[in-house]
Amino acid sequence: MTQRSQSHIARYSSGLAALLLTGLVGFQLALAFGAPWGRAAYGGATERPTEKMRVSSAVASVVWSLIALVVLRRGGYRVPPLVPGRAVSAVMWIVAGLLAVGLILNIITPSRLERMIWAPVSLVLLISTTATELAVRGRR
């Protein structure tokens, strides 16, 4: 594969991941502000998120936003560098690991709605972030 095609893959896959992460951030922010979407999150235990869930969602929205920026930067987009150059690859693999755990949790959740929405999103996020990292590594 040529370096040019690897660059295209990195940009496309990181853009896809950032798009999905933006949706995830929006969902988490809605939960943080009390949206009655609890059946699609936190195991579907409650319709309205509890105060702890709302705080957790607020923190998650910040974390996922930062991850989106790291993934975009890794894919070649011009965004502020949040991670030192030498650590970016390790951070990308940590993100992939978190997404793999998230995928498993979204598959085994008792909430049917959560499985239907977030398991596929988690799978595409895992694939797209991994593809981004592999394409960047292949360019070197």
Write out key terms for the chains shown.
140 residues; mainly alpha; elongated; membrane
Your description of this structure?
The protein has 140 residues and is mainly alpha-helical. The protein has one domain (3-139). The chain is built from four helices and no strands. The protein has helices at 3-32, 51-74, 88-108, 112-139. Helix 1 runs antiparallel to helix 2, helix 1 runs antiparallel to helix 4 (112-139) and helix 2 (51-74) packs across helix 3. The longest helix has 30 residues, at 3-32. The two termini are 12 Å apart. The model has no long low-confidence stretch (mean pLDDT 94).
Précis, in short:
With 140 residues, the chain is an all-alpha fold. 74% of the residues lie in helices and 0% in strands.
What is the strand and helix layout of this fold?
Blueprint: H1 3-32, H2 51-74, H3 88-108, H4 112-139
Helix pairs in contact: 1-2, 1-4, 2-3, 3-4
> Quick one: biggest sheet?
none
Number of E-type strands: 0
Point out poorly predicted stretches: none
Over the alpha carbons, how many angstroms does the gyration radius reach? Answer: 16 Å
